[in-house]
Amino acid sequence: MSSKKIRIAICGYGNLGKGAEKAVANNKDMELVGIFTRRNPAEIAEQTSTKVISIDDVSEYVDDVDVIIMAGGLATDLPQQVPEFAKLFSTVDSFDTHKKIPEYLVAVDKQARKNGNISIISVGRDPGLFSMNRLYMESILFGTKAYSVNRLYMESFLFGTKAHSFWGEGVSQGHSDAIRRISGVKDARQDTIPMLEAMERVRKGENPDLSDGEKHRRICYVVAEEGADKGRIREEIIHMPNYFEPYDMTVYYIEEEELKTDYSGLPHGGFVLCTGETSPGVKQRMKFELDLDSNPEFTGAVLVAYARAAYRMKKEGQTGARTVFDVAPILLHPDAREEAIRKLL
Amino acid sequence: MSSKKIRIAICGYGNLGKGAEKAVANNKDMELVGIFTRRNPAEIAEQTSTKVISIDDVSEYVDDVDVIIMAGGLATDLPQQVPEFAKLFSTVDSFDTHKKIPEYLVAVDKQARKNGNISIISVGRDPGLFSMNRLYMESILFGTKAYSVNRLYMESFLFGTKAHSFWGEGVSQGHSDAIRRISGVKDARQDTIPMLEAMERVRKGENPDLSDGEKHRRICYVVAEEGADKGRIREEIIHMPNYFEPYDMTVYYIEEEELKTDYSGLPHGGFVLCTGETSPGVKQRMKFELDLDSNPEFTGAVLVAYARAAYRMKKEGQTGARTVFDVAPILLHPDAREEAIRKLL
Question: Is the pTM here over 0.90, yes or no?
Fold first, then answer.
């Protein structure tokens, strides 16, 4: 390892940007050059000791930043921003609309390749670590199906230490964000609840075909602006393609104060599970699981590890867009390969 | 993907070789060319419909085999065989003496590189998938420690469906093998039992420093040959460096018949767990877990997935020895990259 630190910048300073800021501070081989924002930098400067820079000045920083962590709105900002930023910097992002990933990958790849950068897309929990575990599982247990399930009262039978209530579990940031963009919505929070019956079938090794809507239902807590048409907002939510249309939906209207106090945490979790047979009757189960006090801080930590990989891949002369599937695990770890093999293999 | 199948051979036909044979049959993009054995091929041919070939004739098959799965004795055969085989073929193996991996890697790398082959070493459960998860966890949750623990009555609180008894859980094939090589030992089985107290400390987020011996104790069931010196055998077992010396050991002598009937299954499992903080008080837990009806069949399935990766890496012109840390996840999956991204990311 060279002693030179990897120079990171963050674009966007919402929950995810703040999580990434903390993660950079936890990694000794990195330094945070600055935070880019669309807002007035002075407004953000009050909240952080990191240098805050207007997004309009981003091109002045091409020689000062190795990798930029794209922490803008997932559904709407990233598809616009990342192909633009990939012209100037190596990037990592957590774009999370599963169905649009292939076209997004192509758009980002084109710019990153043309301009000699590496862009690692759709990094985080899911898509991200969960996707990678689906891939590992289905590669090893051929013909099995890997199921991803969000938090299922996990603590009660798994870690045994925390007694969470049902409400407030499984916040989806991308989906909450999508609701907030509907006209007349002041704030929102979306919780994802797994279907117990579907889970039970997976555990029994039935390997059922399950649609998205059979695995989870979704609950939305919406703070409406004064005078907004609540009926119309509800319709817009439940018919939003990809995001909500496939699901059994419940929409609750609550007061802003209530959202801030009773629903303010951002815990999340879940697991990827599969049951496969290597010969008739011989069942093999694999499971990957996350139990998170803070989803944005965790996603920030994952983005930062992949920022290290992007830096190393570019240094090797690679260019173009990558996913978690394409990145060898060793590229994420701060240690040199020989050291990591000695300590961890 | 080309329609040409990947041509696999297996060297060794014990539990692991048989597991690998089943795994190849489960993968439509592979075919099994043959099984190499040191024994009399006729003896093995009775047990399988695969072609059985004397190990002395291996060099005649250089043009017929893409990757050879090395399924000989882990502790003694592999360090001798794999550097030799790497001169002729790409290889995958499950060498499992953690402390000797660095020197083994160098020895295999030298021959593979010189002869234009790829050798992926120490693939399986642990070292292998567990190691990789330790690496992912420590890369993401910087400063945390990832603990690997073998089966901890998992079913009772995790899958809720099976009621295993304590005995017979957590068989270690490599360690059983090591005991069998002691003079006077007819057969043996070694079970690994996790220390509950140590686990509890990890779950609480204490991140303690735990030696191997603080995490597990080991129980050996030994069938002695008639007239063998049981006291001497016991001493040889408990003082075996790396294998048993660091552990709290219990050695039981049992009858051959008893070993075959009461202790014949090879289930295994365990998990890798870590608890890290991304900011003060914000705890994030990651866990990867296996619950296996058959350890050798599962290890065989992992070896086969990495055989696919070895085939692809060699085709790309790569040479030398690799570990699970070096292999991008996408190389394991039978699907083309675009297809896997569409389906699994």
Answer: no
Task: Please name the residue of chain A whose CA is at the shortest distance from the CA of residue B159.
Answer: A203
Please, what's the b/e burial string for A100-127 (b: 16 or more CB within 10 A of its CB; e: otherwise)?
Answer: ebeebbebbbebbbeeebbbbbbbbbbb
Q: Which of B131, B204, B278 sits opposite A294 (nearest CB)?
A: B278
Which domains does chain B possess? 6-122+296-344 (3.40.50.720), 126-293 (3.30.360.10)
Where is A174: in which H helix or E strand? Answer: helix A173-180
- Contact: A142, B23; criterion CB under 8 Å: yes
Give how far Cα B87 sits from Cα of A254, B95, B111, Å.
69, 18, 6
Residues 6+ apart with CB under 8 A from B230: B224, B253
In this prediction, the answer to ipTM > 0.85 reads: no
- CA-based nearest residue to B306, from B83, B90, B60, B61: B90
Is the Cβ–Cβ distance between A270 and A295 less than 8 Å? no
CB within 8 Å: B297 and A286: no
The residue type at B275? T
Answer for the pair A19, A299: CB distance below 8 angstroms, yes or no.
yes
Per-residue pLDDT tens for A97-146? 888 999 999 999 999 999 999 999 999 988 899 888 888 888 888 776 66
Q: Cα(first)–Cα(last) distance of chain B, in Å?
A: 19
Nearest to A205 by CA among A289, A133, A283: A283
* Beta-carbon separation of A27 and B204 below 8 A: no
